Amino acid sequence: MNEDKYIMFRNRLEKVFRHVSSLSKKQHVSCYRVYNYDLPEFPFCIEVYDDKIYLAEYKKRFEMADKEHGEWLGNCLKIISEITHVPAEKIHLRHRQKKENRESQYEKLNDSKDFFIVHEQGLKFKVNLKDYLDTGLFLDHRITRNKVRQESENKNVLNLFCYTGSFSVYAADGGAAGITSVDLSKTYLKWAEENFELNGFADKKKYRFIHADAKQYLDKLPESFFDLVVIDPPTFSNSKRMNDILDIQRDHAELLNKTLRVMKKGGTMYFSNNLRNFKLDIDKIEAASIQDITKATTPFDFQKKLFRWCFKIIK
């Protein structure tokens, strides 16, 4: 790759990092995204986690020989380190490609047990930049998590596809009367419980962690029980742990109506997904109101870089 391309990458990264790092300091945010495939020749996602960097290299449309790729990556790491002032040994590189199914999210890539604690809006979370495809904290939901905290007092909260339970932790901090967190992975449910313990939430009667297929689990729940629901399903899943296939474009109306059944009248649901071309089938959803809050819940570090939807649905 010629020198002009590296200069272009350096200039782009320097400009973006200066902007988002300044905003992060003003907002007291220590975990934030810097860069996401801004230039096609440099297919990276770069995120800051306190004094460390999570660097994901996406599968490229162009191929390099191993030696050429090694030289290219070494040059990129040098530029990233110089711009962010993070030493190379604290830059954690992941090679990513499109997930084939929900099961791939649960794949353990390594076994370094390299967990550490980060802080977000007064709460603590375990993250891991080495061992899993995802870090344990989805940074793009920062604003939505705070909305849940603000609306949780004395509420019964349901968190479906809960991952490591960050929404549930926020609900607990908001004074929820009870929280049920559901996920298909025992690994992530355990991680969620540890996030609760980190923040001093230990009441087993109030906080339930359910290992189940969320879609099937909804059928077992009583009608009109939950006041507040968070549902952030995968775009597609054919996991062996599920009874059937989940295709969020095809199945979202059925899934949301099942969820509305277990909610109280006037209850709130926050529904999000990552399908770029997603179209909400409003006519099939049995709700009192539906509001697209994607823009309102997009954090400063994801402006023009966010490929997910978020809706506020009232029963």
What does this molecule look like?
- Helix content is 30%, strand content 27%.
- The chain contains 8 helices and 15 strands.
- The strands form 4 sheets. A 7-stranded mixed sheet has the order 9-8-7-10-13-15-14, sandwiched between helices.
- Helix 1 runs parallel beside helix 2 (66-84) and helix 4 (142-151) runs parallel beside helix 5 (166-173).
- The radius of gyration is 20 Å and the shape is globular.
TL;DR?
This protein is α/β, with parallel strands linked by helices. It is built from eight helices and 15 strands.
List keywords for this structure.
30% helix, 8 helices, alpha/beta, 315 residues, 2 domains, four-stranded mixed sheet, seven-stranded mixed sheet, Transcription Regulator spoIIAA, Rossmann fold, 15 strands
What is the class of the largest domain in the CATH system? Alpha Beta
Largest sheet: 7 strands, mixed
The overall pLDDT, averaged over residues, is 92
| Percent helix | 25-40%
CATH superfamily of the largest domain: Vaccinia Virus protein VP39
Total helix count? 8
Write the layout of secondary structure elements.
Layout: H1 3-26, E1 31-36, E2 44-49, E3 52-58, H2 66-84, E4 91-96, H3 102-105, E5 115-120, E6 123-128, H4 142-151, E7 156-160, H5 166-173, E8 178-183, H6 186-198, E9 207-211, H7 214-217, E10 226-231, E11 236-237, E12 246-247, H8 248-261, E13 263-273, E14 289-292, E15 309-314
Parallel strand pairs: 3-4, 7-8, 7-10, 8-9, 10-13
Antiparallel strand pairs: 1-2, 2-3, 5-6, 11-12, 13-15, 14-15
